[in-house]
């Protein structure tokens, strides 16, 4: 551990403003582990309103991958996020919206949110959407994305939000995989002054989705878009004709709330399924305690609704707590690198939650954009998506937080629904780069290669013993893959896919993925998906993708490609290959570096040795390891010769 990673005690501000000091955290944590049923029953009754009380708390068998929480309980997520707040806080702002242009702002009260969501739910009903149907949402970061999610929840439809940066091909694959019959989109989205043609992307996708009978289009920019009278529905016009009364559907705790596709190490993206009761409880409870959220706080999470962070910590968690949550359409560098801090000053943000990649990018542009703003409203800072390097942590802590705001480094995954590891702000000091201690009810375990639990200070694979309410329940349409991916590597535990180290104080340091998943700017990318896109090019016979350290993105995408016989290397082809990946997957998946590889290092059974490719990409040639088991060891010399980073 170096000087930059020294221990920072609980800040005076966090001490004065906390739900849990250290003894309280320890006591409650113990209770949550020794008597989980009682602990979670109490939380479920404190945080949520139920139409019908649950009969049992947990029914979990990790060997069979069967996970159920709050069986027999009935509730509605949209009721919990909106209706129950109306008497007390109907006029309070639920959503502060700020568009791409700083002058474009709007406050939406809980009353207004209620009206919009009820109407949107009626629009969906009008188009035949029923409980259990799947609905695809491909939207900009505007309030309507939240209305759409909550409208689905209100009528019991299952939403599948697809990030607005995904390409036509990715939308198509996700619509087909979840068998969505309705798509909600906008004419265009606007980010950083640029317009992105969402409707046109959907149009191209649905030509091969015969089951889609309705495309609901929100007018965002008013751009001229192609129109199909049979399927396309103008959102604003439809909203004007429907009633603003819509009773929430009574849902079982274990009914699905949403599907969210995420990349895995192999195969097509996985449709992670979260259910109504456990997920909402876990999102609400972690939101309140991790961010020390109090009534009246103004809270801003910079994520996109297309990722789990947007689901849990822009919409579901904060709204279940009756919070004021900010929805931002733009990017942190437009109109300049002071945008976030300008927004903190104007909206008097108290809690700010972002990703290390954004912090690193802003840090690189200079302190002056921060120092001329009044950031005195800030009380707490959060980080998510990847390990935060100590340099970025210090900049965030000192320059943004003025050494006064605790930083919660929150470790979790799409699959976990909410934060599993983070030190609660008032209960434990901080170590820059460490996620910290487990949340209530969470039992992280480090195992060695054989799956044996390691005690005390240890390093190995991170797995979880026992369930927590926000855990995913299955992969949509493929429970066997769910079992295989998460419960077969280490029998009896949930396998996270991350490596971690536990130090003498019990803090967890996340070391990154131990499978072939990349983490680029906090986005999860599957190497297999990028490879499949590259080999679609007629001139490419084979591709292998690995990650390499990247100053801003955390990891960059490094692709090795092998040409078909008789084809020649060229700069134009590199450009074409990058464009091909952007078209197939979205531009955020584009390789940063492409190296020609006349041969790839393979075992005699034909398996590509990515370990070697990673080392060559990183220019770390001292530890290539044993290459003698390769079918043709000479290819390694050739790849080293051609390496791009030196
Ligand atoms: O490798 C871990 C990394 O992001 C992965 C989960 O990605 P995703 O499902 O897209 O969810 C991202 C937002 C929750 C994890 O397996 N990760 C996430 N948070 C952290 C992190 N790595 C280190 N520190 C974190 N705080």
Automatic annotation (TrEMBL):
Residues 529-607 form the AMP-binding enzyme C-terminal domain. Mg(2+) binds at residues 535, 537, 540. Its EC number is 6.2.1.1. Transmembrane segments: none annotated. GO terms for molecular function: acetate-CoA ligase activity. Pfam families: ACAS_N, AMP-binding, AMP-binding_C. Its cofactor is Mg(2+). CoA binds at residues 191-194, 309, 521. SUPFAM superfamilies: Acetyl-CoA synthetase-like. ATP binds at residues 385-387, 409-414, 498, 513, 524. Residues 25-81 form the Acetyl-coenzyme A synthetase N-terminal domain. Residues 83-468 form the AMP-dependent synthetase/ligase domain. It catalyses: acetate + ATP + CoA = acetyl-CoA + AMP + diphosphate. Catalyzes the conversion of acetate into acetyl-CoA (AcCoA), an essential intermediate at the junction of anabolic and catabolic pathways. AcsA undergoes a two-step reaction. In the first half reaction, AcsA combines acetate with ATP to form acetyl-adenylate (AcAMP) intermediate. In the second half reaction, it can then transfer the acetyl group from AcAMP to the sulfhydryl group of CoA, forming the product AcCoA. Belongs to the ATP-dependent AMP-binding enzyme family. This is Acetyl-coenzyme A synthetase. The lineage of its organism: Bacteria, Pseudomonadati, Pseudomonadota, Gammaproteobacteria, Alteromonadales.
